[in-house]
């Protein structure tokens, strides 16, 4: 697929988070400090104009940032001024930040294979049973082959969402840039109830629903019962039919047109 080119501004971001804490003595209070480093790529008219931003945030307060349009670090608070001055004095640091614009350009064209990539999930709903129980005691919704990994799978019984008896595996990699997940409803299906697996994913224009209805199982059982009864009647009627067929059967001789065979 060709890279998406738009006249509207486009933005990509990445971040690193550090949570800092320390041990405290008896009766002390444990404290945490958050250091957040955010990298942003802004695009206008494809890669015609690329802007790179690096934001340094400490305890939810931005102290300093680097802007490729400006070309150096800018302090956002008084505490950020020493940081900005220090980073601006490091040639290697400045060289790395200026080169980040080229990384943004590269990432723009890679986005169609990573950020923008969408693969629709394949869904299958089937009953399951424990080895110790003769009847079905849960329903499984298998969802596989989707990308990206974020997905939402819900179970509905008779139109109402089930939350108490739902068990899900983690989202697992398939090894081919797609993922899978198994979501089970641990409930014995009752006659007349309907069950739906509801799947919502970024690749879908709208959520999709897969139904497992007890009515379908009833039809299947009715068909099996009819087949069994048919076989019974066939077995009971096989003797007389065979006898009648034997009595009345006579193989016709081929016509010779009234002449005796030579």
What can you tell me about this protein's structure?
This protein is α+β, with helices and mostly antiparallel strands and 262 residues long. It folds into two domains: 10-110, Class II Histocompatibility Antigen, M Beta Chain, Chain B, domain 1 (Roll), CATH 3.10.320; 122-215, Immunoglobulin-like (Sandwich), CATH 2.60.40. The chain has helices at residues 80-88, 91-110, 214-248; strands at 10-21, 32-44, 49-58, 61-67, 72-75, 122-128, 138-146, 151-157, 160-162, 166-168, 172-173, 179-185, 194-201, 208-213. The strands form three sheets. The protein has a five-stranded antiparallel β-sheet with strand order 1-2-3-4-5. It is elongated and about 75 Å long. The termini are far apart.
Q: How are the SSEs ordered, and which strands pair?
A:
Layout: E1 10-21, E2 32-44, E3 49-58, E4 61-67, E5 72-75, H1 80-88, H2 91-110, E6 122-128, E7 138-146, E8 151-157, E9 160-162, E10 166-168, E11 172-173, E12 179-185, E13 194-201, E14 208-213, H3 214-248
Antiparallel strand pairs: 1-2, 2-3, 3-4, 4-5, 6-7, 7-12, 8-9, 8-13, 10-12, 11-12, 13-14
């Amino acid at each position: 697929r060709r890279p998406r080119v738009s006249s509207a501004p486009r933005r990509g971001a990445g971040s690193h988070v550090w949570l800092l804490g320390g041990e405290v003595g008896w009766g002390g209070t444990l404290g945490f400090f958050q250091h957040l480093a955010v990298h942003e790529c802004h695009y206008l008219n494809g890669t015609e104009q690329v802007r790179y931003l690096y934001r340094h945030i400490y305890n939810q307060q931005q102290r300093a940032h680097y802007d490729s349009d400006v070309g150096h670090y800018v302090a956002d608070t008084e505490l950020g001024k020493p940081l900005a001055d220090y980073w601006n004095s490091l040639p290697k640091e400045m060289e790395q930040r200026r080169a980040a614009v080229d990384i943004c350009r590269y990432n723009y064209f890679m986005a169609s294979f990573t950020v923008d990539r969408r693969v629709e999930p394949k869904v299958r709903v089937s009953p399951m049973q424990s080895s110790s129980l003769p009847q079905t005691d849960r329903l499984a919704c298998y969802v596989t082959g989707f990308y990206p990994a974020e997905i939402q799978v819900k179970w509905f019984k008779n139109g109402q969402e089930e939350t108490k008896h739902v068990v899900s595996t983690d989202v697992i990699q398939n090894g081919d840039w797609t993922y899978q997940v198994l979501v089970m409803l641990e409930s014995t299906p009752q006659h007349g109830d309907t069950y739906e697996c509801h799947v919502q994913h970024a690749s879908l224009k709208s959520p999709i629903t897969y139904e497992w209805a007890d009515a379908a199982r009833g039809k299947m059982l009715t068909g099996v019962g009819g087949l069994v009864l048919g076989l019974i009647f066939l077995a009971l009627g096989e003797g007389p039919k065979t006898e009648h067929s034997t009595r009345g059967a006579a193989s016709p001789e081929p016509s010779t047109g009234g002449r005796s065979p030579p």
